[in-house]
Amino acid sequence: MNSEEIIKYLRNEIEPMEDQFLGLSYRVSAYLKDGTYLPCVIFRNPEKKIDQAIKRFKEERTGKSIFAKSSGVDGYRDIVKLFVTGGNKINDYDIEKVEKSPFAFPQNILSTIRGETTMAWTGFVAKMKDDNIFGFGTSFLFDFFKMPDGYEANDIKEIINHSYISKTGELKPHKVPFFERPEDYDESVINRERPFFECYLDGL
Question: Where are the domains of the chain?
Fold first, then answer.
């Protein structure tokens, strides 16, 4: 697939997720030309990212940002480093093809997840179409999640907010907010957020 074919596929086949800072995000899986499989990739138009970088660079140079106040003369270099070297990026010309990701929750499911359970943690349970339930949680990223064996994101039927699966396999509600995890909390069964790559495409 060339860039135009990728853009056409994304627009026709992938439901976009709105990012308030970076615009529309198209979440897919991708195969690189050397055969490497990347299960979690986000495609975006680069314009908002560029605008964001220019704004932040200007704030750092004029000493108006939080980084500038805390980092002093190194603030500008710190913010340039963040934009230039931060994150996982891939080039569109290295991509052979893209397809739907089994790890991207549909938008109608994402929209039912309700806020933080406690500071910097959102815990919830997903009920699948076969009525089996599994624990999920994330610190702040909702783009992709690890899925239980044998299941894909499209198998989710319902989100049970602020809940967890106990060590004995029971569905239990979280106290909101909580300051210490419950004694029967089993971290090993929590399906966490997955890391992802970004690819920026002009014209998307």
Answer: 107-194
Please tell me the pTM assigned to this model: 0.90
Cis peptide before 177 (omega within 30 of 0): yes
Q: How far apart are CA 17 and CA 24, in angstroms?
A: 6
- Residue at 51: amino acid letter: D
On the 0-12 / 13-18 / 19+ scale of CB atoms within 10 A, 57 is middle
**Per-residue b or e along 76-110, where b marks 16 or more CB atoms closer than 10 Å to that residue's CB:** beebeeeeeeeeeebebeebeebebbebbbeeebb
pLDDT of the chain, 204 residues: tens digit per residue: 999 999 999 999 999 999 889 999 999 999 999 999 999 999 999 999 999 999 988 888 887 766 555 555 567 788 888 898 989 999 999 999 999 999 999 999 999 999 999 999 999 999 999 999 999 999 999 999 999 999 999 999 999 999 999 999 999 999 999 999 999 999 999 999 999 999 999 999
d(CA 69, CA 129): 51
Distance CA 143, CA 114 (A): 15
